[in-house]
Amino acid sequence: MNTLTFRPATAADQPIIRRMIYRAGINPLGLDWRRFVVAEEDGRIVAIGQIKPHADGSRELASLAVTPSRQGQGIGSALVRKLLASSSAPLYLTCRAGLQTYYARFGFRAITPDEMPPYFRRVAFLMNLGAPANRPRLLVMRWDGPSPDQGQWPSQARA
Ligand SMILES: CC(C)(COP(=O)(O)OP(=O)(O)OC[C@H]1O[C@@H](n2cnc3c(N)ncnc32)[C@H](O)[C@@H]1OP(=O)(O)O)[C@@H](O)C(=O)NCCC(=O)NCCS
Question: Which strands make up the sheet holding 4-8, listed edge to edge?
Fold first, then answer.
C-alpha cells in the first residue's frame, strides 16, 4: 500500500506545479509555489492544490489537480480536506458545473452573483457570457466551515 503524505510546496516544485496545471487544463494564472500544498506518494508528487488570496479579500480553493493515473482513488478528496482543515471560512471556488456534486460533499454550495465577492462575480460574468442563466458553465461555490455533522474530517485516500 502506498503512503500518501502532504507537505507545503517548495521552490523546487514550481515546474511540476506548472506542468500539472497545464496538463489538467485549468487556470494557469497565480501559481506561486508558496501557497501550494502537495501530496506525495513514495517521493513522487501525485496531487497539488492551493488557497489563493484575491485583491478583494476573498480566498479561493484553487488549482486542484491529481495525476491522471491516480485519479478516482480518494487523493483529491484527501487533499481538499487537508486544505480545508488548515483554512478558515469562507472559502470560494470556481468549477465546471459537472463538479458541483464533488465539491458539495465537502460542504461547498453553489452561490448566486449577489452572494459573490467582486473577483468571483467578474469571473462568473465573463465565463458565463452567452450561457443560459439557469445553466451556467462555470459555478462559484462557497464553503462556510465544517458542518456540525461532519465533525472530524472523515475518509482516508484509498491507496
Ligand atoms: C477533479 C479531481 C481533482 C478529483 O480528484 P480525484 O482524486 O480524482 O477524486 P476523488 O478520488 O477524491 O473523488 C472521486 C469522485 O470524484 C468524482 N469526480 C472526479 N473527477 C470528476 C469530474 N471531472 N467530474 C465529475 N466528477 C468527478 C468521481 O466521480 C468520484 O465520485 P464517487 O466518489 O462518487 O465515485 C481530479 O479528477 C483532477 O485532477 N481532475 C483534473 C483537474 C480538475 O478538473 N481540477 C478541478 C478544477 S475545479
Answer: 4-8, 36-41, 44-53, 59-66, 91-96, 138-143, 109-110
Q: How far apart are CA 156 and CA 77, in angstroms?
A: 8
Distance of alpha carbon 157 from alpha carbon 159, whole angstroms = 6
Q: Which of 129, 130, 132, 120 is nearest to 92 (CA)?
A: 120
Q: Is 61 in the pocket of ligand 1 (CB under 6 A)?
A: no
| Of 2, 3, 28, 6, residue with least CA distance to 17 | 28
The pLDDT value recorded for residue 149 is 65
- Does ligand 1 lie within 6 Å of residue 138's CB atom? no
pTM for this structure?
Answer: 0.92
What ligand 1 atom has the least distance to the C-alpha of 75?
A: 7
What size, in residues, is the chain? 159
Reported as half-sphere exposure (CB side, CA atoms, 13 A), residue 29 has a value of: 4
Complete domains list, the chain, with CATH: 4-146 (3.40.630.30)
Q: Determine whether the shortest distance from the Cβ of 9 to ligand 1 is under 6 A.
A: no
Q: Where does the pLDDT of residue 2 fall: very low under 50, low under 70, confident under 90, or very high at 90 and above? A: confident
